[in-house]
Every structure is written in structure tokens, then in C-alpha cells.
Amino acid sequence: MQTGSATRIGILGGTFNPIHLGHLILAQNALETHDLAKVLFIPCGTPPHKDAKALIPAEDRLAMVQAAIEGDPRFEALDLEIKRGGVSYAVDTVAQLRGLYPNAVLFFIIGSDTLPELHQWRSIYTLLSLCRFVAFGRPGFDAAGMSREALHLDSPWPERLLENVAVGRLIDISSSDIRHRLAEGMSVRYWVPREVEMYIAEHGLYA
Length: 207
Description:
Layout: E1 8-14, H1 21-33, E2 38-43, H2 58-69, E3 75-77, H3 80-84, H4 90-100, E4 105-111, H5 124-130, E5 132-137, H6 157-163, E6 165-167, H7 175-183, H8 194-203
Parallel strand pairs: 1-2, 1-4, 2-3, 4-5, 5-6
């Protein structure tokens, strides 16, 4: 249970193309590890580091997120990046969230494999000052084995980031694998929530 006065809110962004069980497990890991009040799922409009050609419409990706988390009061879907338009930069989103939740402590949730890429993110030092990054590695991941130099960031950020790495109960599922299976006519049951599987089938997505 939370003991402090400030609300602790997690942020999980991504293309969610589509959302899958790995995303949900990551969100739950973060919620439990960092005693969060809730986790915000934020589908991006146009990703800065991925090929947008493979994306289905943002409205469908948002609808699948909403279907996946419906009935769980710990999770909430926001369409901030979709409504804002243009390329979706995390720094703009977190700045907007700071205005929406001025008294909250914001936790930006990532996988440990994203840590060496953070230095490429837009206005990364501003972003680091607006929220706390919390990373999750797969079982067996050793944060102590990752060098500070590998993060390519000025001190004290490498030290702070690596201090906030936890081992999560992550599963090896990717959205690209799901899209490939669907394109080949294979089942994605047990890869995505049943509601998402039904949405994909009803709308003929990824065929």
C-alpha cells in the first residue's frame, strides 16, 4: 500500500501493434515493484524510431489497448499522443502528463534493452528530469554487468538508471511475431488477451 502523499503513476508507451500479454505483465511488474497507484498505457501516434508503414491505424491500436485492460482499475488508456498528432516524442508526452498530474511522481516503464538507446531520445536530459525511469530485465539479467559507458549519458544519469533496474517476470513475446503469425494464418491465442484476439478477427487486422 502507498504510504506517501504523492500519487505514484506509471507510464507505459509504445506502438501496441498489437498489445500483448508481455505488455500487461510488464505493467503489472512495475505496479507491484514500485507501489504504483496505476499505469497509463499510451499508444503512440507516429513513432520516432520505428517504421510507421507497419502500423495499423492509431484508433485500432487504442481500441485494442482499451479492450485488453477493460475491467482492471489499475490500468488506464490515454490517447494523448494520438490526439497531439505528429511524431510522438516521450518528452512532450511526459511534459503534458506533468500538467495533468502536477502532484504525482511519474515512473516511465521500459525494458532493460532500451537503456542503451535512451541517449538517442529527443531532449533526453529534460525527459530524465521530468520522471523516473524504471527498467525491467529478463530473469538472469545483471544490471551490475552493464557498464555506465554503454548508456552514453552524462553522470549521474547512468548510475541512477542502473539503480532502478529490476528483474521482471517477462515473457518472450513481440508484436512483430504476432503480426507474422496472423499473416500466416496461425493462432495468437495465449499471446494476446482474448478480447484483443477477437478485435483483430472482427476487423480483419494483420491478415
